[in-house]
Queue: 3 jobs
Job 1
Amino acid sequence: MSPRSASVNEELRRRSRERLLQAAVELVGEHGYDATTLGDIADRAGSARGLVSYYFPGKRQLVQSAVHRLMHRTLEEALEREPHTEDGRERMARAIDAILGLARDRPVLMRQHMAGILQAEGFMQCPEQRRLAELLREVCVRHGSADPDTDYPMLRALLMGAVYAALVPGVPMPVPVLRAELFKRYRLDREQGVPPDAGAVSGETCDMDLSRFFATGSPPDCAEGRPDPSAQSK
């Protein structure tokens, strides 16, 4: 059997990493951060436990990367949904609704994420976080920002503050109230984006299947039923 090409090996590694990211958001969302171990994540992902440390320095870094992945893919999906638009105000509205929607629909996961950022390790840079930053900065540009290097950090801070306010145990602020305040700041109409009552009208519920946000399908050149070679210890 001829050796796999470099591109196939890279794809195997990418899919293995994404399986770990998906497993992390699923388990932390189900059980919380403290009750989730790296072994649990590896088992859910179908990976060797030693493989986790190959991609991530520790659990905190893995979970932050996983949540940033979910956030940037959720935002990306919201911005590109039909009907597609280049209108800056509509795209800002969609961005706000996408992030607030995560606080509403995945409170355990997002609460753990916010708590992790406040730990000593703080806010960690990773490819997933950089992609999220690029998307939010682009939203500011499309919205008409003359100084996106200043306006993007403010948008990020406002969204993080709103998520925190929505998730404070005992005294959470309603997401519609937070949405109205952000919409007022950015001069958006209530009907733009995804209004809070849109789901109730259409009967939509939170989609718990996260697979569309993570490229975890069958890797190339892996025969059906044969173990994924990337799942072996490095």
Job 2
Amino acid sequence: MRSSDVAKSGTDVGVTFLRMVPSAVRPIPADSSASGTLPVRAYRYCEPVRLASQLGWYVFPPLDFRVMWDGKVIFFKCAGIDDWIQADTLQFPKFKDQFNASAPADVQGYSPPFISSVPEPGSFQLWSGLVLKTTPGIFAYVRPPINYQQNHHTFTYEGIIETDEWFGPLFTNIKILKTDTEVIFHRNEPILQIYPVDVRFLTLGGVRDFEFVESLDAFQEDDWTAYKRTIVDRVGPKREKGSYARRSRKTRKND
């Protein structure tokens, strides 16, 4: 019987990560400290940053490796490969045979590549070694780790995948920003942060209508009351450091 890791946090939204590559890292819940990279003051007092940082799960690369872009070609190197090789389309080491040994006959030969170049200069596609599926109506927001400080000379694209229907490799597209520089990826450092979004999120995200107040003279009494509560009542000796964070956490706890 096949086992799978079903991620549950409070309410089970039907998120399932499936491991294909044996060395693929099991995702872990993202945390409010951005895996310890947030400044202490932000972690203690900036609740908006904490809330965003802890969404969903971290996803990792399945091995340590290096890439480099010379302005024309992307090169790849990892343990067991001493010389740079061109990263047009590379299978994960030894995975092709493992895939064919497990896959049905009509699926054999279709193992996904681990890394492959894409037409855009300096860009490549990187596979986590995982597949992700969700229940109907739940999609996956795939993006670089939120507020996570990395030194890579790279840019990671964001996307929303309809994982309730699209069952395929969980990958990302990365652009190298600096030529002739080794970019190192570590198996213990996340490359992605994944969190579930309801299909209704896309409906809200597509809304283009909004109201606009033209000037201060048009502010209503309740606007000024809210401003006073948020700003004026927190200035000078009346200010309690971290009061917003405490109030926000208390409200969520009571919900």
Job 3
Amino acid sequence: MTRRPLSPPGQRPLQALTFDLDDTLWDNQGVMTLTEEGHYAWLDASLAAWLAERGEHALGRFAERQPIEAYQRRRRELAERHPLRRGDFTWIREQALCALLEEFGLPRAAAWMWALAAMEHFHHLRLRVSPYPEVEPMLEDLRRRYRLASITNGNLAFHRLELSRHFEVSIAAGEMHAPKPDPRCFLMTLAKLGTTPERAMHIGDSWQEDILPAVRLGMQAAWIAGDTPHGEAMPAGVHRLSHIRELPALLERLSHGKRSDG
């Protein structure tokens, strides 16, 4: 079906919508807690069973000698030492796990094997997101009128989700070493979509990482703010929404030249 982007009089029509993922299309807190704790517990239990099969009992339990707090601290240290990779969360996690496993007493080859296996379990758990019920039909409708893309700082294997079929372009900004608010991930997305900032809107929950960089590039932006306080008036081109379900109504108002209530 031919897309029919609309816009207020005097403004060029929107061609594209770019979306943040975590805490925009779904609530991410629960799944991240499950993933963080779950993959580390899996590593502890699976490694203990593997060592027991080999009759190796001297090393003890990994999570007792290297508690999850040590893992989190090591990740922070790596991000500080490697600022260009601070947003490449999979790389940071793999490096941290391998280092802790070596310190635990595994040879380097075995440490890497278990680090990669733990990260595979991480990605499996990370996919257990539950998009808001309005998201699937909303995207199905919007893709008929706009080109859609996703831009995320997270390390979710988004291409494995059925929801990803709605997006022509999906950018993992951390893996390209340009995590939001770096403008390069936005510019790359727009280039892949074949559009310009003034003909695109970005939708996200973070004022610093989503809204400000989009507006500075000349995009419109829909801030999924929930009940986040913000005493100042919205800058031109920024529309405040409490939930992603309000996006279609916003686009409808804008298509008829009406101002947003946000």
